[in-house]
Amino acid sequence: MSSPGPRRSGAAETGAEGTGVGGTAGTGAAEAAAGGTGAAGAGGAGAAVPTRERMVAAAWELLGEGGPDAVTLREVGRRTGLSRTAPYRHFQDKDDLLRAVAVRAFERLHDRMRDAVDAADDPAQALRGACRAYVGFALDQPRHYRMMFGDWVLAQKHAEGPQSGSLREAADRLFGLAATVIQSGQRAGALRTGDPSDFSLLTWSFLHGLVTFTLSAHLNADSGAGEPGGEFREALDRLIDEVVHGLAA
Question: Where does the HTH tetR-type domain start and stop, copy by copy (predicted)?
């Protein structure tokens, strides 16, 4: 797994270790702001936002509202106040637009986890915070998460073209983050010695499985799919604590 490069600019997001997966109040709005806010754009009041960025922002919102099927170039044009043909000057087709949204999603998840790592006081807290940030993002943005780790994005990562290259780069930076955090913990003597790639794969597998079960409601049937209650979120925190404890030196 590759090591993550420099962080990309974006809205600051919460996700410090102490917040827990249930302590992400407001992060859904923060993610929307990071992805953009439709025609208003992601640059804030009074900022001039490039047309392409406004369209990616609108597509981000549409994806969150109704999944990939809800994202159309015509609706993106309508939401951004552009003509029907304007989106085609920036994106070849819907897939091209969705690739840009997927890149942004990987970047936002990486930055959210990185924020949690930076806010931690020790290596174990850094790993715990990164795990909680991952789960929190998935619960806040379930449709984005499903697309990121679905078959369509996997196929796009192996396709030709600059957008696919950007998608691979963004995904690699995300996956490299866990290995980097684990290596730092090992150097500090806080985490067990061993192949950091193996420990990273273990961590990713646990997190993805936990999120998948949660979003499908197989583990939280009483709460409803994708809507775990406070007690269940606390249970997710405890499971993350167990994994981090298992990797501790």
Answer: 49-109
Q: Token match 């552009």: residue?
A: 82
State how far the alpha carbon of 154 is from the alpha carbons of 60, 112, 147, 150, in Å: 19, 22, 9, 7
Q: How many domains does the chain have?
A: 1
Can you tell me the distance from the alpha carbon of 176 to that of 64, in angstroms, rounded to the nearest whole number?
A: 26
Q: Do 75 and 56 meet the contact criterion of CB atoms below 8 Å apart?
A: no
37 or 209, which is more confident? 209
What does the alpha-carbon distance between residue 248 and residue 205 come to, in Å, rounded to a whole number?
18
Q: Which domain holds residue 92?
A: 20-247
Q: Is residue 11 one of the residues assigned to a domain? A: no
Is 5 inside any structural domain?
no
What is the rounded distance in angstroms from the CA atom of residue 140 to the CA atom of residue 86?
31
In which residue are the tokens 């006081």 written? 121
pLDDT digits over 190-214, tens only? 999 999 999 999 999 999 999 998 8
Instruction: Work out the number of other CB atoms within 10 angstroms of the CB of residue 106.
Output: 22
Specify if 12 maps to a domain: no
DSSP labels, 190-248: SB--S-HHHHHHHHHHHHHHHHHHHHHTSS-TTT-TT---HHHHHHHHHHHHHHHHHHB
Rg of the chain over CA atoms, in angstroms?
18
- Whether residue 2 lies inside any domain: the answer is no
- Is residue 117 within 8 Å of residue 126, measured between CB atoms? yes
| pLDDT reported for residue 159 | 82
Whole-angstrom distance, CA of residue 34 vs CA of residue 173: 18
Cβ neighbours for 36, distance < 8 A, ≥ 6 positions apart = 42, 49, 53, 54, 56, 57, 58, 60, 61
- This model's pTM is above 0.90: no
- Mapped onto helix, strand or coil, the DSSP state of residue 21 is coil
